[in-house]
Amino acid sequence: MTRSKLKTILLAISISLVAFGLIFFPKESLEASRRGLVMWWEVVFPSLLPFFIVSELLIGYGVVKFIGILLEPLMRPLFKVPGVGGVVWAMGMASGFPAGAKLSARLRQEQQLTAIEAERLASFTNSSNPLFIFGAVSVGFFNNANVGILLAAAHYLGNFCVGLMMRFHGRHNVESEVPYKKVYFSVKEAFHSLHETRISNSRPIGKMLGDAVTSSIHTLLMIGGFIILFSVFNRLLYIVNITEVVAVFVGFILSLFHISTELALPLISGLFEITLGSQLTSQTEEVDLFFKVIITSFILAFSGFSVQAQVASILAETDIRFQPFFIARIMQGIFSSIFAFLLWKPLYVNLYTMNDKQEVIPALANDQGLSWLYMYWDFLLQYGALITLASLCLYIIVYTKANFH
User: Fold this and answer.
1) Do residues 162 and 123 lie in contact, with contact meaning Cβ atoms separated by under 8 Å?
2) Residue 287 counted as domain residue
3) Does 9 reside within a domain?
4) Does 6 fall in a domain?
5) What are the backbone dihedrals phi and psi of residue 260, each rounded to the nearest 5 degrees, phi first?
6) Which helix (H) or strand (E) holds 354?
7) For 316-341, how does the pLDDT look when each residue is reduced to its tens digit (9 = 90+)?
8) How many domains does the chain have?
């Protein structure tokens, strides 16, 4: 039997088993689907939509090229990607998954990146945004602001290390490798490129804005489908006890690192969906917070098969391969866990005090520097669904005008 035929059989069996699971466990599937929908409806859609629309406009009007030329002397020596990678990196950190992959694919379609450069860029520009790390994980799950500081530091340092490692990716691919030449900081050249890009784009601002809205909402609809699908899939695995069987093996690996085996189930859940995995990790009782933070760091860095499926779908529209991205997620999981271990004392223990009952009290619980994140998170929880509904109505209007007039 050929490898292709074996793959066909395995895929057919897997899809059939999922279908049977939906039939035999309709109530549990519905609850899992609703949970994924609420997460997308209230948080993911309204938080990502502005970044997606703005990024489309930045590319269309040449602002990305402008910044890219200015950042070329920094990005090329460090990560072996063009200066536009700096914009993708910043937007990826600010907006979260899968913005880095979407922008990398978009720049590849614009021929501003080679295939190898796009693979490098997509590998280290995808990360959880600060809103999710501080708002959902640290405050929502751990009820502890200082945990967010530690998780964010470990997460973004892990991203940086992945970028340094991925600079060696494709170094033997001569056809896709751009010869390095020393580039100097030039505002004049950057402005010239900005002007040329704007002139070459003949679309009026109304048309460009409409295309940006349509493209962004189309991508977010796809993301919502993946979130719901993997939420259901994760629940079905738990119901049929497959998760518990795998947890035995994962627990053995955790025990080798002297980490409680109670975290095996949350870790497996996090491999599929980061929100559920982070929540279950925070709720695990009789486990030291130190180990919870390490596992959560790995979950956030690995990003879950749900996010990886979203990225795979986005990259499939180009010649960017998914395999380097997947390998980079494993690398970042390892790096982030190590940084969480190393930074535990300086970024957590030293920021806390002990009272007479030996209970941990957050020294930065009222940190005004992070208050805007909490306010933004509360705003999304209250008005996120309304923003999503209004955006979908706008999408229908724009799509109808574009296709039926």
Assistant:
1) yes
2) yes
3) no
4) no
5) -55, 135
6) strand 352-354
7) 988 899 999 999 999 999 999 999 99
8) 1
